[in-house]
Amino acid sequence: MSPVRADALVDLAYGGLIALSIVLIATVNTSVGVAFGVGVFAAYVVHVVWKMVRFDPDWMTRTVEEAVEEQIESTMEETVEATMEDTVEARVEATVEDTVEQTVEESMEETVEAVERTMSDQLDEVQTRVESLDERIDGESRTGEASDGSDGSKPDDGRA
Q1: Residues 40 and 18: beta-carbon distance below 8 Å
Q2: Which of 59, 50, 58 is nearest to 3 (CA)?
Q3: Which of 36, 58, 68, 136 has the most CB atoms less than 10 A away?
Q4: 36 exposed, middle or buried (CB, 10 Å; 0-12, 13-18, 19+)?
Q5: How far is residue 114's CA from residue 101's CA, in Å, rounded to a whole number?
């Protein structure tokens, strides 16, 4: 007999035993039928696993490998994503903070220096004007005193 026919007959026999367990559940005693059915089903599972190993020896290895691979991939993806998110966020935050701080500092220093230069130039110009006005006022008051006399009236500037 060929192995394929033997496997087919064994499968048919298991099918008959499962049908017998259903008949026992329905007719005799439910607990006896269930116990017989569970036993037949457990034996059938062992038979199927034996056939899978016989026809495809790498079946169990491949199945376990796929399950482990999926689990590792899922775990690694979550771990790497969380780690990368934290690391990148921290580095970007630090870099941006440093860059902005440095840029603002440099910009403020340049602006303050420009304002100081402008204010100094304007103060020098105002100081020069004030000194010029002082000299004009001093010059007019001296000429006004000489032409004014002692009556305390204002000198005549030619306006009517």
Answers
A1: yes
A2: 50
A3: 36
A4: buried
A5: 20
